[in-house]
Amino acid sequence: MVQVVLGEDEGIESALRRFKRQVSKAGILADVKRRRHFETPLEKKKRKRIATRRKRRFR
Length: 59
Description:
The chain has about 60 residues and is mainly alpha-helical. Helices cover about 65% and strands about 0% of the residues. The chain has one domain. It has helices at about 10-25, 30-35, 40-55. The longest helix is centred in the C-terminal third of the chain and has 17 residues, at about 40-55. The radius of gyration is 17 Å and the shape is elongated. The two termini are about 30 Å apart. Keywords: Ribonucleoprotein, Ribosomal protein.
């Protein structure tokens, strides 16, 4: 879970920016988008296979 503690002299805008950055680093939005619709086992395998190819290419 992502938490942002507001500093004493910190504005809401900067805290919101930090929160958005932490959420994107944690991959929460990508996970929510992926789980929005049911994914069949075949689609899961295909997604994982593509991710593996991407990882190999950038190594």
